[in-house]
Amino acid sequence: MIILDLGCGTGTLTILIKQSQPTADVVGFDGDPQVLEIARAKAAQENVNLTFDQGMAYQLPYPDNSFDRVFSSLVLHHLTTQDRRRALEQVYRVLKPGGEFWIIDFGKPHNALAFVISLVMRNLERTSDLIAGLLPEQLRRAGFEQVEQRERFMTLFGTIALYRARKAEL
Ligand SMILES: C[S@@+](CC[C@H](N)C(=O)[O-])C[C@H]1O[C@@H](n2cnc3c(N)ncnc32)[C@H](O)[C@@H]1O
Protein backbone atom coordinates (compact mmCIF):
# COMPACT_ATOMS: atom_id res chain seq x y z
CA MET A 1 0.00 0.00 0.00
CA ILE A 2 0.95 3.62 -0.49
CA ILE A 3 -0.21 5.74 2.44
CA LEU A 4 -0.31 9.51 2.98
CA ASP A 5 -0.37 11.12 6.43
CA LEU A 6 -1.79 14.56 5.64
CA GLY A 7 -0.65 17.25 8.10
CA CYS A 8 1.74 14.81 9.74
CA GLY A 9 3.27 17.32 12.18
CA THR A 10 6.28 15.80 13.92
CA GLY A 11 5.47 12.39 12.45
CA THR A 12 4.16 10.47 15.48
CA LEU A 13 1.29 8.86 13.54
CA THR A 14 3.38 8.51 10.36
CA ILE A 15 5.96 6.44 12.24
CA LEU A 16 3.25 4.32 13.91
CA ILE A 17 1.64 3.59 10.53
CA LYS A 18 4.96 2.42 9.09
CA GLN A 19 5.75 0.33 12.17
CA SER A 20 2.34 -1.39 11.97
CA GLN A 21 2.55 -1.84 8.16
CA PRO A 22 6.29 -2.29 7.40
CA THR A 23 5.74 -3.22 3.74
CA ALA A 24 3.74 -0.04 3.00
CA ASP A 25 5.28 3.06 1.47
CA VAL A 26 4.36 5.85 3.89
CA VAL A 27 4.56 9.55 3.10
CA GLY A 28 4.21 12.32 5.71
CA PHE A 29 3.07 15.68 4.38
CA ASP A 30 2.92 19.02 6.18
CA GLY A 31 3.01 22.74 5.48
CA ASP A 32 5.56 23.54 8.19
CA PRO A 33 9.23 22.86 7.30
CA GLN A 34 10.29 23.00 10.96
CA VAL A 35 7.97 20.21 12.11
CA LEU A 36 9.12 18.16 9.12
CA GLU A 37 12.73 18.47 10.28
CA ILE A 38 11.68 17.08 13.67
CA ALA A 39 9.69 14.32 11.94
CA ARG A 40 12.72 13.31 9.85
CA ALA A 41 14.92 13.18 12.97
CA LYS A 42 12.33 11.06 14.84
CA ALA A 43 12.02 8.65 11.91
CA ALA A 44 15.81 8.30 11.74
CA GLN A 45 15.96 7.65 15.49
CA GLU A 46 13.25 4.97 15.16
CA ASN A 47 15.07 3.54 12.14
CA VAL A 48 12.00 3.68 9.89
CA ASN A 49 12.18 4.56 6.22
CA LEU A 50 9.65 7.32 5.45
CA THR A 51 9.29 10.12 2.93
CA PHE A 52 8.39 13.59 4.21
CA ASP A 53 7.14 16.24 1.77
CA GLN A 54 6.29 19.88 2.34
CA GLY A 55 3.27 21.67 0.88
CA MET A 56 -0.27 22.82 1.47
CA ALA A 57 -3.12 20.38 2.00
CA TYR A 58 -5.25 22.17 -0.60
CA GLN A 59 -2.57 21.89 -3.31
CA LEU A 60 -1.20 18.36 -3.12
CA PRO A 61 1.86 17.77 -5.34
CA TYR A 62 0.91 14.20 -6.26
CA PRO A 63 -0.59 12.70 -9.43
CA ASP A 64 -4.22 11.53 -9.52
CA ASN A 65 -4.90 8.05 -8.06
CA SER A 66 -1.60 7.81 -6.12
CA PHE A 67 -2.57 6.56 -2.63
CA ASP A 68 -4.47 3.59 -1.16
CA ARG A 69 -5.11 5.36 2.13
CA VAL A 70 -4.94 8.94 3.37
CA PHE A 71 -4.92 9.64 7.12
CA SER A 72 -5.42 13.05 8.69
CA SER A 73 -5.21 13.61 12.43
CA LEU A 74 -6.28 16.96 13.91
CA VAL A 75 -5.54 18.93 10.74
CA LEU A 76 -8.87 19.83 9.10
CA HIS A 77 -9.84 22.21 11.92
CA HIS A 78 -6.83 24.35 10.97
CA LEU A 79 -8.35 25.09 7.55
CA THR A 80 -10.91 27.71 6.55
CA THR A 81 -14.13 26.29 5.08
CA GLN A 82 -12.94 27.14 1.58
CA ASP A 83 -9.45 25.66 2.06
CA ARG A 84 -10.99 22.55 3.65
CA ARG A 85 -13.23 22.12 0.61
CA ARG A 86 -10.19 22.35 -1.68
CA ALA A 87 -8.21 19.96 0.55
CA LEU A 88 -11.00 17.35 0.53
CA GLU A 89 -11.17 17.60 -3.28
CA GLN A 90 -7.39 17.14 -3.45
CA VAL A 91 -7.50 14.08 -1.20
CA TYR A 92 -10.24 12.63 -3.40
CA ARG A 93 -8.11 13.29 -6.49
CA VAL A 94 -4.94 11.64 -5.15
CA LEU A 95 -6.73 8.57 -3.72
CA LYS A 96 -6.92 5.51 -5.94
CA PRO A 97 -10.42 4.23 -6.81
CA GLY A 98 -11.60 2.25 -3.77
CA GLY A 99 -9.13 4.13 -1.57
CA GLU A 100 -10.06 5.34 1.92
CA PHE A 101 -9.68 8.63 3.77
CA TRP A 102 -9.54 8.32 7.58
CA ILE A 103 -9.95 11.51 9.60
CA ILE A 104 -9.81 12.27 13.29
CA ASP A 105 -10.95 15.75 14.31
CA PHE A 106 -13.57 17.75 16.19
CA GLY A 107 -17.08 16.33 15.91
CA LYS A 108 -20.60 17.10 16.98
CA PRO A 109 -20.92 17.08 20.80
CA HIS A 110 -22.25 13.72 21.97
CA ASN A 111 -22.97 14.42 25.64
CA ALA A 112 -23.87 17.32 27.92
CA LEU A 113 -20.28 18.11 28.97
CA ALA A 114 -19.08 18.07 25.35
CA PHE A 115 -21.95 20.40 24.48
CA VAL A 116 -20.91 22.89 27.19
CA ILE A 117 -17.27 22.78 25.99
CA SER A 118 -18.47 23.27 22.40
CA LEU A 119 -20.03 26.61 23.36
CA VAL A 120 -16.45 27.89 23.63
CA MET A 121 -14.82 25.85 20.84
CA ARG A 122 -17.45 26.70 18.22
CA ASN A 123 -16.43 30.37 18.45
CA LEU A 124 -13.15 29.45 16.77
CA GLU A 125 -14.06 30.14 13.17
CA ARG A 126 -12.24 27.16 11.65
CA THR A 127 -13.62 24.66 14.17
CA SER A 128 -17.29 25.65 14.01
CA ASP A 129 -18.18 23.61 10.88
CA LEU A 130 -16.78 20.47 12.44
CA ILE A 131 -18.57 20.99 15.76
CA ALA A 132 -21.80 21.62 13.81
CA GLY A 133 -21.32 18.14 12.31
CA LEU A 134 -20.88 19.41 8.73
CA LEU A 135 -17.79 17.37 7.81
CA PRO A 136 -19.66 14.28 6.47
CA GLU A 137 -21.63 16.50 4.07
CA GLN A 138 -18.43 18.33 3.02
CA LEU A 139 -16.84 14.93 2.28
CA ARG A 140 -19.83 13.85 0.17
CA ARG A 141 -19.68 17.12 -1.77
CA ALA A 142 -16.01 16.43 -2.56
CA GLY A 143 -17.12 13.14 -4.17
CA PHE A 144 -16.66 10.64 -1.33
CA GLU A 145 -19.14 7.89 -0.64
CA GLN A 146 -19.75 5.55 2.29
CA VAL A 147 -18.97 8.43 4.66
CA GLU A 148 -19.24 7.16 8.23
CA GLN A 149 -18.48 8.32 11.74
CA ARG A 150 -16.78 5.21 13.12
CA GLU A 151 -16.02 6.31 16.69
CA ARG A 152 -16.11 9.31 18.96
CA PHE A 153 -14.11 10.17 22.05
CA MET A 154 -14.63 12.53 24.97
CA THR A 155 -11.62 14.83 25.49
CA LEU A 156 -10.79 18.05 27.36
CA PHE A 157 -11.62 19.89 24.11
CA GLY A 158 -14.96 18.12 23.68
CA THR A 159 -15.97 15.46 21.18
CA ILE A 160 -13.30 14.15 18.83
CA ALA A 161 -14.67 11.95 16.05
CA LEU A 162 -13.15 9.34 13.74
CA TYR A 163 -14.54 9.39 10.19
CA ARG A 164 -13.98 7.11 7.22
CA ALA A 165 -14.85 8.00 3.62
CA ARG A 166 -14.28 6.03 0.38
CA LYS A 167 -13.56 6.94 -3.21
CA ALA A 168 -15.75 4.82 -5.48
CA GLU A 169 -14.28 1.86 -7.35
CA LEU A 170 -14.02 2.40 -11.10
C1 LIG B 1 -2.35 19.73 15.50
S1 LIG B 1 -1.10 19.34 14.33
C2 LIG B 1 -1.41 17.61 14.08
C3 LIG B 1 -0.17 16.87 13.75
C4 LIG B 1 -0.34 15.34 13.60
N1 LIG B 1 -1.24 15.01 12.54
C5 LIG B 1 -0.79 14.74 14.90
O1 LIG B 1 -1.94 14.30 15.02
O2 LIG B 1 0.03 14.70 15.85
C6 LIG B 1 -1.69 20.07 12.82
C7 LIG B 1 -0.69 20.02 11.69
O3 LIG B 1 -1.34 20.43 10.49
C8 LIG B 1 -0.42 21.20 9.73
N2 LIG B 1 -1.20 22.06 8.82
C9 LIG B 1 -2.10 23.01 9.15
N3 LIG B 1 -2.61 23.59 8.04
C10 LIG B 1 -2.02 22.96 6.99
C11 LIG B 1 -2.12 23.11 5.57
N4 LIG B 1 -2.95 24.00 5.02
N5 LIG B 1 -1.39 22.29 4.78
C12 LIG B 1 -0.55 21.39 5.32
N6 LIG B 1 -0.40 21.20 6.65
C13 LIG B 1 -1.12 21.98 7.48
C14 LIG B 1 0.36 21.98 10.77
O4 LIG B 1 1.60 22.44 10.24
C15 LIG B 1 0.50 20.97 11.87
O5 LIG B 1 1.71 20.23 11.76
Largest sheet: 7 strands, mixed
H/E element sequence:
EHEHEEHEHHHEE
- Give the strand content: 25-35%
CATH third-level topology? Rossmann fold
What is the overall pLDDT average? 95
Q: Based on the coordinates given, report the CATH architecture.
A: 3-Layer(aba) Sandwich
Write down the overall geometry.
globular
Please bin the fraction of helical residues. 25-40%
Distance between the amino and carboxyl termini: 18 Å
Radius of gyration of CA atoms, rounded to a whole number: 16 Å
Which stretches are low in confidence, meaning pLDDT under 50 for 5 or more residues running? none
Count of spatially separate domains: 1
Q: Find the count of extended strands (DSSP E, 2+ residues).
A: 7
Bound molecules: S-adenosylmethionine
CATH homologous superfamily descriptor: Vaccinia Virus protein VP39
Structural class: alpha/beta
Task: List descriptors.
36% helix; 7 strands; 6 helices; binds S-adenosylmethionine; 170 residues; alpha/beta; Rossmann fold
Detailed description of the structure:
The chain has 170 residues and is of the alpha/beta class. It has one domain (2-166): 3-Layer(aba) Sandwich (Rossmann fold). The protein is built from six helices and seven strands. The chain has a seven-stranded mixed β-sheet with strand order 3-2-1-4-5-7-6, sandwiched between helices. Strand 1 (2-6), helix 1 and strand 2 form a beta-alpha-beta unit. The longest helix is centred in the first third of the chain and has 14 residues, at 33-46. The model has no long low-confidence stretch (mean pLDDT 95).
